């Protein structure tokens, strides 16, 4: 491990990556303005470690809040905040359940905004690859430090006027674990405070373990000083025209302005655990990935762990919480969105979930598709942009069969009574539940083990309506890395794309890379070292459609049939056969016992049309060569060439 670490670090330096160890430019994006005696004397600052106090003070002088509140993370504090939000109309209590609330956002602030998300580094190529001439780079947006400084001075000056600045100490990973990392988020949104309380380990206890030289500084504002000067939904302040989400790996800073929603504002999640996380992981020799982690126990009682990277809204939460339809199998959840993984001294890849809650897609979740999630969210849950029933319950598309329609419904856009025939969607397609992981009845006993759980397989998967089989296995590690690089998926409502186009989304990380994707690929390839037990890599697709436009596979709990095949492959069973794209299940080796009545078209699910794959390889090659130019590793180029040859030779 040590020696791999050194190799990675020296390569990082050689490649000119700006994450120089030992060089710190702390707080560099927050300008030093004239001291404010009132703020300096604030009692809030006195309780903080000096470097945290200094970060808060500088930020307060810039943002000019009316008060500063250091969150202790207690239940009493949360109760107070929620009551206050109910009073102002930001939250509505859902009387049908215990301690559940609903927030409705401004209709212009409903998802992550990828086009306004930037990685800020000294050199552009530290953050994003240099595309071939004439090609527009699609693998992240770069901004210079100078430009960000200008934006911070411009947008943040006085941006919290009339509002409280909340100081949120939080830990990604269990408090005190050697793998965990600490952040301090400043925000003027009480909704963000309540959400961070669920999603992270948050509060005063974190300060006790804080290393003053090593915490991530996160500054967030909804960008609406009071009295209000512009238009937004009164109960959901935001500033969509001025929104920016910037991460500065060099100084471990995150600066977010204008949005109160999801990954834009809960800065521990995508900004920290993935963008800053992946940059640190590169530097330190580990992996920060957009992956669920699950434990699976087979009928013989053997247990393994699997990590899976699917793009946003492509099924991670549902797979991590699945209720297996095959008798004797048990699936347990370690995490549903993010994995931090590192090879240990025995050469085993170990993974932790840095989060403490789920921020899950609501529509499609039901007792039929995901009973575990339904149990998890039955109390202490913050819902956003779902619809509400007149008896104080929630409603969204997918809950029709378990909803009493004698009560009227208020849609996410506040239309009451909402009617299906005329009202459009009741819930926004990216509406979410924010709920504590500890409430999930299938949490894995080891989910908080600081050593992490041992990973035996990595799955890549996405929404592919055409051409891509339900499961195939990579030939080896290099081929597997190429499969990750070649991922594409139908766009979803999790970001700002409105059409259902098929987009490239390497490793399900396209919106989340914290450094140059060419280096990321080399980093993945470098994991293949002697004495390591590399996980096997698979690709899965639950979303293939037939000629009638309907899904060919029932999905959800039935996906265990695919996990069962994968499990048996991990045991070395002879159930796979060669194909041009990788190893496919031999006929009859996917267990379909008990679902004959569903008339699954299994041949269609595994068909690999030559013309489709000829085009697929061409598109992927063109994309990766165009996007990465000289940064495309030779190994990946070779893998693509070999795939192309095999497809050309197909009958
Ligand atoms: P993010 O939280 O955005 O990262 O999404 P995710 O990857 O966790 O996706 P999630 O499990 O929330 O699923 C997104 C949508 O896909 C929901 O509407 C689900 O109901 C639906 N879905 C999940 N798994 C399946 C499946 O196996 N088959 C089908 N047809 N739909 C699925
Ligand atoms: C995703 O988009 O992948 C999510 C939701 O998990 S958000 O927190 O908004 O990023
Ligand atoms: Mn996600």
Automatic annotation (TrEMBL):
InterPro entries on file: PEP_carboxykin_GTP_CS, PEP_carboxykinase_C, PEP_carboxykinase_GTP, PEP_carboxykinase_GTP_C, PEP_carboxykinase_GTP_N, PEP_carboxykinase_N
GO molecular function, one term: manganese ion binding
GO-annotated biological processes: cellular response to glucose stimulus; gluconeogenesis; glycerol biosynthetic process from pyruvate; oxaloacetate metabolic process; propionate catabolic process; response to lipid; response to starvation
Cofactors that this protein relies on: Mn(2+)
Entry GO CC: cytosol
Catalytic activity annotation: oxaloacetate + GTP = phosphoenolpyruvate + GDP + CO2
A family per Pfam: PEPCK_N
Superkingdom classification of source: Eukaryota
Keywords attached to this entry: Decarboxylase, GTP-binding, Lyase, Manganese, Metal-binding, Nucleotide-binding
EC number in record: 4.1.1.32
Domain Phosphoenolpyruvate carboxykinase C-terminal P-loop as annotated: residue spans: 286-646
Family indicated by similarity: Belongs to the phosphoenolpyruvate carboxykinase [GTP] family.
Protein name (database record): Phosphoenolpyruvate carboxykinase [GTP]
Biological source species: Hyalella azteca (Amphipod)
